[in-house]
Amino acid sequence: MTASPVPSIRSWVADAIQSIEADFNRSSDAHLLHVPLPGVRGVALYLKDESTHPTGSLKHRLARSLFLYGLCNGWIGPRTTIIEASSGSTAVSEAYFARMLGLRFIAVMPRATSAEKIAEIAFYGGESHFVDSAAAMYEESARLAASLGGHYMDQFTFAERATDWRGNNNIAESMFSQMASEEHPIPAWIVIGAGTGGTSATLGRYIRYRRLPTRLCLADPEASVFHRHLADRSVRAVAGPPSLIEGIGRPRCEPSFIPELIDRACTAPDAASIASARVLSRRIGRSCGGSTGTNLWAAAEIIAEMEARGEKGSVATLLCDSGERYRSTHLDDAWLAQRGIDISAATAIMERFFETGIFTTPDESRG
Ligand SMILES: *Cc1c(COP(=O)(O)O)cnc(C)c1O
Fold first, then answer.
1. Quick one: 138 and 34 in the same domain?
2. What is the position in ligand 1's atom list of the atom closest to the CA of 289?
3. Residues 174-233 pLDDT 10s
4. How far is 45 from 37, CA to CA, in rounded Å?
5. Ligand 1 centroid, distance to 247 Cα (angstroms)
């Protein structure tokens, strides 16, 4: 009688889960930073610094959850090639876990993905496979998985369900517990961008589950479909040039994005996101990526409104990844100039917000 292969695969899976749990156990929680706003009297701003994860972004959480989900579902075994559609950050984090488990990893990414991220994927032993546009990633990933007999992780579908939204030290539970000793421990608003929509789903569900009054604001690039979908549920895709802000702002409405959980959307032009990330980096002495700038632009709008109404409270958002990933793009003035992006007006608006608590976008000042 030949032995069933099942016990050896099951013991490999058990060891794989053990390795991921041990990585979690070695890691500390991301800091919740208090952001000084010299011109704001009644409202405090907090920033959860997700750049401190071992792979440098909030996608470390997602990659961990997706691997555990795939392992516990029996989708990932000792010889499974892992394939993912990614604008870069998820691929960096998944490459890290794939290497930890000894699995081949292939990232399917838009050609325009920053060189820094491509180098990081290679650093963790991952392979990069390019497509011409973000819209082409999904089909190519599925095709590649079928032809290699691999597993397409599909973050855009599984992000919302791979995360334990009730707790288990997810990002929501962690944020609220870190707020506990603050003057206003329950934030009036949490401001969040959406890429997969997984983080906003976790936060929105957690807020309801814990019966908290906190509202959720989507910070969305102008080129993104998500705020259009919130305004009109029949809009599920958008054509036109994609946002330059990596990680958020999608051309199609992703399955993990749950619109019912969003109380409001604030949009930001890419120049405003880039300007805000630079201003914030200078103000807090930590490098911030573009999607963090989008979050700040939206948070400034909300905080200025609260100030104008004389409200007191707190607003929390995320530092999603470090600006170091965008040295050759957002932080390079020549790169901006080549694309005709002028960040001077938005920089002045954001500096003025910090100094006065007043936030007026160019559209508003034109009347
Ligand atoms: C993925 C990502 C986001 C958005 O998070 P989701 O949970 O996917 O919606 C924001 N910023 C960066 C840098 C990201 O990589």
1. no
2. 13
3. 999 999 999 999 999 999 999 999 999 999 999 999 999 999 999 999 999 999 999 999
4. 8
5. 5
Q: How far is the CA of 138 from the centre of ligand 1 (A)?
A: 17
* Angle ∠(143,146,150) on CA atoms, nearest 5: 115
| Number of structural domains in the chain | 2
Best mutation site among 196, 248, 329, 330 for ligand 1, i.e. most ligand atoms within 8 A of its Cβ?
248
Residue found under tokens 């509202």:
215
**Which residues does ligand 1 sit against, CB inside 6 Å?**
57-59, 89, 159, 193-200, 247-248, 289, 291, 320-321
Contacts 24+ apart (CB under 8 A), 231-235: 231/265, 233/259
Q: Which two tokens stand for residue 141?
A: 């990933």
Residue 199 lies in a domain: yes
Prediction pTM value? 0.95
DSSP conformation class of 88? S
